[in-house]
User: Fold this.
Amino acid sequence: MTFDDLLHANLRYREEFHDSGVAGKAAKGLAVLTCIDSRIDPLAMLGLRPGDAKIIRNAGARVTDDSLRSLVLAANLLDVHRVCVVHHTDCAMVGQTPDGLRARISELTGVDASGWEFLPMTDQRATLRDDLARIRACPLLPPDLEVGGFVFDVHSGALEPVEE
Ligand SMILES: [Zn+2]
Assistant:
């Protein structure tokens, strides 16, 4: 079936797997919101291991109602006190307009996508700054939550802080 390769890989994974016993909280007090781009390995990129951080991903690493939902739960219940929002170079969500992207999806699917918000960006850094402000303005997040924005270079592996 479609997922046979994955189940097969899991057989090997479970042979080497050891329950680390870590809790489902974030040992490093960290949440990372990043893009779904398959070149990003969030744990390796930040020197983290399973148990260290909450990882939230969506197309473009956008601060949406749903990513805020996860951040509110992580900050209030799961020991998160700092958040990294990590955009990246060569992101497919950059350089498109909302209307252009909707038109493209409509064309590909043959279904009217005009009611959808895909949240593409034209100015990546300005969008990132706006999104950081949206996290800071969320009333259900602790006022002392540390929030930082970064751009990951998918070709060099470098992580660049974005000044606000
Ligand atoms: Zn991306």
In short: DSSP finds five helices and five strands in the chain.
